[in-house]
Amino acid sequence: MTSRFTELTVDCHDPEGLAAFWCEVLDFEVIDRGEGKDEIGSWVPAVEDVRARQMPPTLVFIQVPEGRSVKNRLHLDVSPVDGSTEDEVTRLLGLGATRADVGQGPDRNWVVMADPEGNEFCVLRTLAP
């Protein structure tokens, strides 16, 4: 008996807004929307597909009343696929991300950023040819 990693849930104030931001970052689309919940992904999950093989997880944004109070214990890492890391950081800043300082120091080969609700994520080295 095994389990599958099917989704990663993010608590937030504005599920629709955060889902829209991450759709732009990852080239995902909204695959389910409900009251206080938006789910995005690169594919529409079907039980048969998930049972057959490990598939990429979706992201689910759930509305909660409380704000974030400490540094994330879990965060996303993204890698640009068609441009430089610097170009991707500039694009993400234009989408509403901000640079974040979590004590990483200046000499790193990744950039720590925060989404519009302050959730940290990292932009890693480019995968562009």
Walkthrough of the structure:
This protein is of the alpha/beta class. It has 2 domains: 7-63, Signal recognition particle alu RNA binding heterodimer, srp9/1; 76-123, no CATH class. It has helices at residues 15-26, 47-52, 85-95, and strands at 7-12, 29-34, 37-41, 58-63, 76-78, 98-99, 111-114, 120-123. The strands form 2 sheets. It has a 4-stranded mixed beta sheet with strand order 1-4-3-2, with helices on one face. Strand 2 and strand 3 form a beta hairpin. The longest helix has 12 residues, at 15-26. The model has no long low-confidence stretch (mean pLDDT 92).
Short description:
By secondary structure, the chain is of the alpha/beta class. The protein has helices spanning 15-26, 47-52, 85-95, and strands at residues 7-12, 29-34, 37-41, 58-63, 76-78, 98-99, 111-114, 120-123.
Distinctive features:
four-stranded mixed sheet; Signal recognition particle alu RNA binding heterodimer, srp9/1; globular; alpha/beta; 8 strands; 129 residues
